[in-house]
Amino acid sequence: MIRSFLIVCLMVFTTAVVSAQTRFFTKTGTISFKAGTPVEDIDGVNKSVTSVIDISTGQIEFAVLIKGFEFKRGLMQEHFNENYMESDKYPKAIFKGKIEDLSKINFKKDGTYKALVKGTLEIHNVKKDVEVVGTIKVTEGAISSEASFKILLEDYKIEIPGAVKDKISPTVEIQTACDYKALK
Amino acid sequence: MKRVIAIVLIAIVAGAIYGIYLYNKKPTDTRDEKADFEITAVELMKEFTTSEEAASKKYVDKVILVSGTISEIDLATATLIIDTTDPLTAITCSFYKEEASALSHKKSGEAVVIKGKCTGKLTDIVLNNCILSNSN
């Protein structure tokens, strides 16, 4: 009798632990951006993005190291870090937000779901509220996220000198892609 | 007079060639660079935990040889994670795509030395442009 009681207790406990696993993370997400014009292509990519998503609350966060963005050309990478992002002073960019329409996403069922995410994006020591419609994909219990959105450089106090105005676009297109694993 | 014009022309051409060279120069390649520091994963994490600011000043943008134990390998993203004995934090090593094949022979638990450029710390310390060091 005591034994079966203990077994039931254990089962209940295990279920609780399993269902409490609502946080998913990645350390190898990708963020890329395009800031070029027809005169010059300027593309940066970072493949060591950290992101966490909590499927019970809809909380979603991204963090990326500015120094980890890679470019085709060395000088571009240097100017990006030194002149525009000042990455020695402001080494990270961070987004903290929430999936607003969480109830529309069924994390137990395979599919691609639209997700409206509202939150704060911090770049170059400037915090701004942003709203992005991204997608959440569920494949056999695995979760991935994707988003594409535009920001204005002047919103983040990133100044482009007159001499290169025709090369650097005032709006930058940002793309994110993350494959998450359950947080153990 | 002719000579002056010739010199000026040569200077302009040389300047232009140098400009084109600079413009097309690739970002630095860790494979061609000497390591600035050699350290164990545990020691490196200790320095970042003690003072992230001081450690960032010392290591960010520098090529480092980091030795430790592999905790995870992800071939799809060409990433290797080195254990720091602290379960909450590690060293994430993002490899050159073309160097990722070298990872398929490695297993978690194995000792490894990685050469890469430090880009700072999020929850993990991140090394970019990584390769397996020749010393192992």
Written overview of the protein:
The complex is a heterodimer of chains A (184) and B (136). Chain A has 184 residues and is α+β, with helices and mostly antiparallel strands. Chain A has helices at residues 2-19, 74-84; strands spanning 23-34, 43-54, 59-65, 92-99, 111-123, 126-139, 142-152, 171-182. In chain B, 32% of the residues are buried. Chain B has 136 residues and is an alpha/beta fold. Chain B starts with a helix and ends with a strand. Chain B has a 5-stranded mixed beta barrel with strand order 2-3-4-6-5. The mean pLDDT of chain B is 94. At the A-B interface, β2, β3 and α2 of A face α1, β5 and β6 of B.
Give the structure's gist in a few sentences.
With 184 residues, chain A is an alpha+beta fold.
Features:
heterodimer, A: 184 residues, alpha+beta, Lipocalin, 2 helices, 48% strand, elongated, B: 136 residues, alpha/beta, OB fold (Dihydrolipoamide Acetyltransferase, E2P), 5-stranded mixed barrel
